[in-house]
Amino acid sequence: MTFAALGHILPELILLVGACVLLMLGVTRVGRIPGASAGATCGVCAAALAATLWAGIPDGMAELPGLSLSPMTFYVRWLTLLVGLLLILLNWRQADPAEQGEYLSLLLFTMLGVLLTASASDMVVLFFAIELVSVPTYVLVALSRRDARASEAAVKYFFLGALSAALLAYGLGFLYGAVGTTSLGAMARAIGSGAEIGGLALIGLLLVFGGLSFKIAAVPFHAYAADVYEGAAAPVTALLGFIPKFAGFVALIRVLDVFGWAMSPGVFWLIWGTAALTMTAGNVLGLLQRNVKRMLAYSSIAHSGYMLVALLVGPRLGDGPMSNGVTALLFYMAVYGVMNLGAFAALSSFRRGEDEVELVEDLSGLGRSQPGAALALSVCLFSLMGFPPTAGFLGKVYLFSGAFSVGEDHAYAGALTVLAVIGVLNSAVAAAYYLRVAAVCWVSSERERLTPASGMSGRLGLTIAAVAMIALFVSPGALLSKAHVASESPGASLERSATGRAAVDGGDLLRVADER
Amino acid sequence: MDLGLLKILGIVILLAPLGAAAVCGALGPRRLRDRTHWVSILGVGSAAVAALVLLLHVASHGSGEASTHGGTHAAVGATIPVYDWIPTGVAGGRAAGAVDEDGQVGDLSYQDKQVGDLLHQDGQVGDRSYQDKQVGDLLHQDRQVGDLPYRWFRVEFLVDPLTAIMLATVTCIALLIVIYSRDYMRHHDHAERGYERFFAYLALFVFSMCALVLGGNFLLLYLGWEAVGLCSYLLIGFYYGKPSAAAAAKKAFLVNRVGDFGFGLGILLIYLTFGTLSYADVFDMIARNVDATGAALETSKLTTIALLLFCGAAGKSAQIPLYVWLPDAMEGPSPVSALIHAATMVTAGVYMIARCGAIFVHSETAMLAVAVVGACTALFAATIALVQTDMKRILAYSTISQLGYMFLALGVYAADSAVFHLFTHAFFKALLFLGAGSVMHAMGGVIDVRQFGGLRRVLPKTCVLVVIGSLALAGFPMLSGFFSKDEILHHALHVHPVLGAMGLATAVLTAFYTFRMVFLAFAGPPRVPEGVHPHESGGWMIGPMSVLAVGAVLVGYLGVGFTGKPFHTFLEPVIANTFLAAGPNAAGAHAAGGEAVGHAASGGFLAEYGLMILSGGLSVLAILAAYVVYAKAPWMAATARATFPRAHDVLWNKYRVDEAYDRMIVQPLRSLGRVCFYLDEYLVDGIIWVISFVPQALGYGARGVQRGALQGYGLAMGVGLAIVVTVVLTW
């Protein structure tokens, strides 16, 4: 590894340095100037984004110990940073001004975790990256509001998160035990070399899937979501809907990549059942909620179920987004992140008296008192519902069409079709609770005066989210082609890190350490 | 033709009104208020200018040379891709079918697919790096090509003389009407409630209609089609506080849905048959007589497609049996009636059939259906118009009747005459509706001719303008309506004498009822509703009407000439390979070398001039008859009514079609709805209650430990995982 190689991880370095500086700035007087920390955070994020775009899609030579860069890294980087910018807009003001520095630096740390997840080529790095995503979110939940509910949510989130981290570590341990290496590339080679996937590796895979299921809130690891979403303030909830989920799916893609997407019947039916249960449970429970944030939490669970359908289809090289599951997944992740963020941005932009908007009825008459915000919220809700003319519609079409079009030669064509049908039915059921919120906004008369809460930044974030949903419907080509490039060869980077210089150079951290 | 210029013009035509609608909607209520009309005028005006430039460009460059750009001989005109919209699959791949013939991209993706297949069979991951490299190389090439090898639904324009004429008509008339609305939508210089909403909708409508006309494939056609339907709904229900307006809007929407359902099915069938929705590709494949799989087309399939498309046209253009929404649509403000329900939107069906001539002419059944429905609608609506007393409703039935003429023309292979009549009709019918609006404005919202009369002294300018419009509608010799209508009768009599005779009868009725309305409203001693202080409309309203009046007199001359009709010659390339080639005049047209198509065949000049004199004379006689009955000797009308009470009753009640629909369709559906409602209320909700009771009961049970049920969640995770591991390992 040379100094020049650091240039390849410039976005990550910018985030890291920026986060540390912010953390220290937070205790000084500078950090208390209203908007100073937030502005600086925006600057850091924008700089990282600029570095990402300047570097472009990494070529095969970008190798670092434990990291390997691929087209998917590029996609994850710019998407995370772009959505991150919107999240910073939403989190411009904190409950306690004195905590601005910590709060915003944690935001940057968790984004850094996502970026590293996408480029980790070693299971240790992958584990640390996932934890880097998780740990700051626990703290963010606690900091988001100054009341007991937030603390309770944070504690719950932390303990269950710790349990899932243990599962993940345990599973990675089994994998190490099965193949004797921590390098994902070497592992892929070992698993793909024709040897039967042994029981040990299978248990490892199951445990890893379990640990990551927590991140994406899939059944039976979903129960925390409603409590935590309800307890945290809306801007942080917007973050919880995107950052951990994105990291979880990226990690799942990478792990399934290691296994060459060749699924044994057990694994296939496991994911199949998880997907079906997750979307059904999410939607059925969502129907029962009166609290908007709990409802959106269940909607988030249901969306994980939809996305698992695409994960199950997997990458089908050379095919378009209509049949390449990973393209569809990456596309949908971007759309979901923004529309979910928009919904929470709308919720955080009003207060009912001193408190946040909680119940569906609290939004009564929003269409009359604040037509602009109500319109933006409705656009995001229609997008979540999967209705044209919003990007959510296209995203869902691609998610499910892959399962419909795998073709007769696919071993599980029938099962996938059934799963997609379950998904479509679920989308129809979900429309009921999204529409209820939209209807309350426009039809019911105002019950209680809602006062605007978020400043310009929050409204800007909301507007951008709503406009993006329409714009991505009108012209999805650019994003789709980026997702296509990112998913065309997700495994290629592993191969290179296994065969190339990196393997010698330190691709296998543990073994190097052992030798020492 | 300069494709770059056309593309820019097309984008301006679409985005200017759309932008205006957005600005009106966003800034209207708070900032612009009663200045909102300027935004709309600017947006629609820019579109109108762009449309005129486009028309001139197409006219000056001809469309013949452009056919090379279109790539096919079937679709004349230039297909201009704007951008790729929604990818539908991989070019040359499974989903693509055999349509795609461009080699390179297809080959690339074919290799991709091979690699993909290998990968999927694999297990042999050892080989993967090699394959990946291949994929990488391919990807690299793709990136160099600059585009992904997908098949797309494209956003594309089709620019040909038909498009150019339609765009110019729509935008120019819309501009005049937007200007007119400035005064119409305010009373005593106070903007009406919803002023900015009105202008936002008008601009949105112009955008939708332009998208419908400009779109280069069936998907965009469908989008525009639905969007104009939406705008129509919004504008009919503009006074949504009024129950009749809300009901009319709902009726229009629902009746149109019936037609649109067929239309949607037709488009789906086109996609299934041809594997593409692009006009150029579809028409080209029809010309080559192949479908997506390369097999020969079946006539029955084309007939089905054509009839389904016609179903949509009948809904949007208010033909039997789906015409019932249009008279009710008069609940909207008068400018809306003028713009949407007379001049532009309702002609979408005519445009669509003219555009899809390649499909229709392959099916004699469909053509006959179009002609018969058109002729019947024309006669039927004209008879109802005889006894109505609401000025706008008389005009509405007259619109239905005139649209019937256009369909008759399409059905007898005279698409150029249909479009010509569409063109002239747009002027005089917009003029008449704006005139009716002017009367309504002066009469304080009353439009029933029984409640006022003798307005020629009260509203002198409006009176003159309405008379001009009426003369044109009645087919008075040497005005625009005369030329276009006469042409249709000429072709119809030649192809289907019976239908032609029905058209001739309609012409007589048209002249009669039009002037019945004129004499009732403007002749005799002045009479106005109580409490109304009538005033002549101001320049904002009279100005646009005057322009339309000039148009109503003069535009007909674009379609006459001794050496060839300029309008028809201009339009000819569009329909030369479809309507003209398949029509009964085909041989004649070829013999005449394509020159003066309208004239060249079928009996020559003598027959046409004879018919001109006949129909002109009949129209003059009918006007005189109306004068005698309604202005000179009103007792005659009363006597006629007393002598044939039943006939009058039937006509007055519009043949009781609404009631019949209500009894045969609406009531049974309502009953079904009621059954479903009770099923839903008791059966489904019962089941839901039971289902939702379970989690709720669980919830109640768990409520005690819910707060702080961390251990419970952890247990669920652990147990779930244990089950999963056990199941998977023992599989």
Describe this structure in words.
The complex is a heterodimer of chains A (516) and B (731). With 516 residues, chain A is mainly alpha-helical. Chain A has 2 domains: 10-259, no CATH class; 261-490, no CATH class. Chain A has 22 helices and 5 strands. In chain A, the strands form 2 sheets. A 3-stranded antiparallel β-sheet of chain A has the order 4-3-5. In chain A, helix 6 (148-179) runs antiparallel to helix 8 (199-216) and helix 11 runs parallel beside helix 17. Chain A is globular and about 65 Å long. The two termini of chain A are 18 Å apart. In chain B, the strands form 2 sheets. Chain B has a two-stranded antiparallel sheet with strand order 1-2. In chain B, strands 3-4 form a two-stranded antiparallel ribbon. In chain B, strand 3 and strand 4 (190-191) form a beta hairpin. In chain B, helix 18 crosses helix 24 and helix 20 packs parallel to helix 23. The longest helix of chain B is centred in the C-terminal third of the chain and has 50 residues, at 657-706. Chains A and B meet through helix 6, helix 7, helix 8, helix 11 and helix 19 of A and strand 1, helix 4, helix 5, strand 2 and helix 30 of B.
Structural class computed from helices and strand pairing of chain B: mainly alpha
Largest sheet of chain A: 3 strands, antiparallel
Number of strands of chain B: 4
Q: What is the helical fraction of chain B, as a range of percent?
A: over 70%
Estimate the global geometry of chain A from the Cα principal axes: globular
Oligomerization category of the chains in this entry? heterodimer
- Show unreliable segments of chain A: 496-516
Residue fraction in strands of chain B:
under 5%
Uncertain runs of chain B are: 63-75, 92-146, 587-602
Number of helices of chain A: 22
Q: Radius of gyration of chain A in whole Å, from Cα?
A: 22 Å
- Our Rg estimate of chain B from Cα atoms comes to 30 Å
